[in-house]
Design a protein that fits this description.
- This protein is α+β, with helices and mostly antiparallel strands and about 140 residues long.
- It has one domain (about 20-140): 3-Layer(aba) Sandwich (Endonuclease, Chain A), CATH 3.40.960.10.
- The protein is about 45% helix and about 15% strand.
- The protein contains five helices and four strands, in the order ααβββααβα.
- It has helices spanning about 10-20, 25-35, 70-75, 90-110, 125-140; strands spanning about 45, 55-60, 65-70, 115-120.
- β1 (about 45) and β2 (about 55-60) form a beta hairpin.
- α2 (about 25-35) crosses α5 (about 125-140).
- One of its GO terms (molecular function) is endonuclease activity.
């Protein structure tokens, strides 16, 4: 099901989806500011090693820590995800593919020795930044 193309219900839906921000969202910027202020250096939107067309939101390459800040709607948050009623079948397939892709990315990175951290956009940026910093420190200690 990962390779099945989806067609939106109308040109206006397609246009709205194409304008949706993919990077530098407010939650990402908040977490990145906190990490940077604490002295951490990282890459942003780096390619997932060995997987074309997928990116990691925040990457600590030497420590092999990948951080994803997932949007509640697009990635199926158990607390806040909603399902559109218009063109419901198409949306269900689209969102299911997103979640399957997330699981596949996490599995592949973990199998390659990476620490993968996934957070929801609604989580407190200070808590997220603290957990990321702790994971990076632990990964560096293991090296």
């Amino acid at each position: 099901m990962l390779g099945v193309p989806a067609i939106p219900s109308s040109p206006s839906v397609s246009a709205r989806m194409s304008r949706q921000g993919r990077r530098d969202t407010a939650p990402e910027l908040a977490v990145r500011r906190l990490l940077h202020a604490a002295g951490h250096r990282y890459r942003v939107n780096a390619p997932v090693p060995g997987i074309p067309r997928r990116t990691i939101d925040i990457v600590f390459g030497k420590a092999k820590v990948a951080v994803f800040l997932d949007g509640c709607f697009w990635h199926g948050c158990p607390e806040h995800a909603t399902r559109p009623k218009s063109n419901a079948e198409w949306w269900q397939q689209k969102l299911d593919r997103n979640m399957a892709r997330d699981r596949d990315t996490t599995t592949r990175l973990t199998d390659a020795g990476w620490t993968v951290l996934r957070f929801w956009e609604h989580e407190d940026p200070a808590v997220v930044a603290a957990r990321v910093a702790a994971a990076v420190a632990a990964a560096r200690d293991r090296r």
